[in-house]
C-alpha cells in the first residue's frame, strides 16, 4: 500500500479547507495518523512520532511535522509508504532518496543520491544563495502520472525518472535522471532569494505558469550538464528543447506563452497549461534572453528580482523591471527597446517568426512562421517580434544585431560576388526563430559544408537541416533547395545531426510505404554512400568496443534510427550484424543484445531468418520474466517476418494476446478510425481508397460512415501530395546520384 499526494494545480482543496490559489501563501502545521508499520513524510522534518488507540483497540502512529515556511498550497505534500532510503548530507541539507526496499538494496537510487547534492550546490553557487530547509526527500513512486513534482522538501518522481539499473548502461537513463532531478531541484528555491522556479517566489496567477516551469526547464540543463559534463549543453538543449517546440509552435490557434488572467477558465483549463508551450517555449525564450543579455547580467538581474519577491508573488512584468534596472546600470549590452517591449513580443504573441535574408541587398524581413499550404494561414497575422540576430560571416562571429520592424536593411550583410562569402544567422540557435536564406546564400552554405563542415558549428548544422525541411514542408521553398544541403553528409560525424536528416528524409510514418515508390532505389544509393562512414564507425564499436558508447548520450538515443535506416536501405553489413547478434542470442539466451540497437537487431534478425528465428522470438515473448519493453520489442520483431504465412501467424498471435479474435470488430468507431489512419499511409492508388471504403461500409454503422469518408478523402489528398513530392525528390536524386 502507498499513499502519495499531488496538489498541483488545484487539488489541495480536496485534502483540506484552504484558499487554493498560488498567491495566497501560509505556513502549515501537518500531522498524519497512519499504520505504525509505515513511515509518513511531508514537506518539513518530523518532530514527533507517538501512538494512539482507536475505539477498536487498534494502534496507530501519529507523526507530527515542523511548521513549514510560508508557501503556496499546491506544493504541500505527504507520502505514507513502507519504503527504505539512502542518505547523505550536502552543506547541512539532509538528502534522502526513498524507494521500494529491493530497489534501495540493489543500489538503483545510488546515482540519484550522488547527483542531488552537487546539483543543489551548483545552483546555490550560481545564484549565490543557500537552501533554507533542513532536509530534502526525493521519493520514487512506482506509478505517478505527473512524472515528477517539486513539493518543497518532498519531491516525488516516477520510478523511471529516479532509478538507474545496471541494464540501463546504454539507454541514456543517466541523462534523463540528471535532467529531471535538476528540474525539480530548480523549483526548490535555493535560499531566501531564490524561487522564481517557483517555491519561494511564485507567479501571481496561473496565466504566468511559464515563470516557474520555463525557467526551471532552462536551468535543468545547466544542472544536468554540470553533474554529467560529457553532455554538451548546447547540443542537448537545442535537440531536446528548441527544435522540439519549433515543430509544434507553428499552428494557427496555438496559444501564447503568457495570457491575461481572465482567459483562465476553470481547473480543467489550468491542467491544459502544463504543456510543451509552457515548458519548452518558456525555456527557449529564457535561453534567448540569457544569450542577448549575457549570462552574467541575466543572473545578476535574477538575483535582484528574487531578493525583492522572496516568500511572495510576482508576474512577468516584475521580472522585466528588474532586468531593465540591471541593463540601465551598465554600458556593455545595449538594447533597441525596453526589456518589457522586447520580451512581451515573445511571451504575449503566439507562434514565432521566420526571418528571410536577401544577400544582394542585405535586407532581413520577418513574418509569422505558418503553413503557406494551409488555406486558413492568411496574411492577416501581422505579428512582429523584436529579434536578436547572432550571426557569422565566413566563419567569423559578428556583433549582435536587432530586427525591430517587419523589414530592415543591414549594409554589413551585403556580400561580394565571391562564392566563398557567406552569412549564417541565428548562430547555435541562440534565438527562437527559423531562417529562410535566399538561393545565393543556400548554395554558398552548401559549398561550405561540402568543403569544411566544421566551419559551421554542429548545432547550426542541425538548425540548417531542420530549417530547410520545415520551410519546404510549409511551402516557403522547394524540396530541391533542402536536398542541396545533404550532399555533404559523408563528412558529417555528429549523430544528432544525422538523426534530424533521417527524420526528414526517412520519416517513420513513410518507412513502410517508400519502398513502393521509384524514389527508393535512388534514395538507397544516395543515402548509403553518405551514411557508410558514420555507420561503420558505430558498427565497429558495437562489435569490438561497445563500452566506449557508455558516455555517448546521442549514440544511446539515436543509434537505433541510424541502424534501422541502414538495414531498411538494405546495407548488407547491417543485415549481417543483425543476423549475427540475433543468432548469438538464440545460442545463449542469457546474452543481451545491446539495448541501444536491440529493436533493429530483433526485427532484422527475424526478417533475415526463417520460422526458427520467428519461433524463438515468440518463445521469448511468452517468458514470464519478460518486461513490457521486452514484449513490445519482440512483438514488433514478429511483424518483421518477410514470409506471408509468418505475418499471418503474427497477426493471429497478436489477436490471441488481446484476448479475443473478434477484437477488431468489437472496438467501435474510435478504434477503427485509428486503424484507418494507419492503413491510409499505405494507400497509393485510388483503387485502394475504394477498397477501404467498401471495407468500412461493411464494418461501420451508417451514422459512423461520414467521418470515415472524410478521413479517406483526406488520405487521398495527402497521398497525392506525397506522390508529387516524391517525384520531385526522385528527379533531383537522379541528377545528383553520383555527386
TrEMBL record:
The record marks 279 as: Transition state stabilizer. The active site is at residue 184. Its EC number is 3.4.11.-. Its cofactor is Zn(2+). One of its GO terms (biological process) is proteolysis. Binds 1 zinc ion per subunit. Residues 2-75 form the Aminopeptidase N-like N-terminal domain. InterPro entries: Aminopeptidase_N-like_N, Aminopeptidase_N-like_N_sf, ERAP1-like_C_dom, M1_APN-typ, Peptidase_M1, Peptidase_M1_aminopeptidases, Peptidase_M1_dom, Peptidase_M4/M1_CTD_sf. Residues 111-346 form the Peptidase M1 membrane alanine aminopeptidase domain. The keyword Plastid does not apply. Keywords: Aminopeptidase, Glycoprotein, Hydrolase, Membrane, Metal-binding, Metalloprotease, Protease, Signal-anchor, Transmembrane, Transmembrane helix, Zinc. Zn(2+) binds at residues 183, 187, 213. It is found in: Membrane. PANTHER family: AMINOPEPTIDASE Q (PTHR11533:SF31), PROTEASE M1 ZINC METALLOPROTEASE (PTHR11533). Belongs to the peptidase M1 family. This is Aminopeptidase.
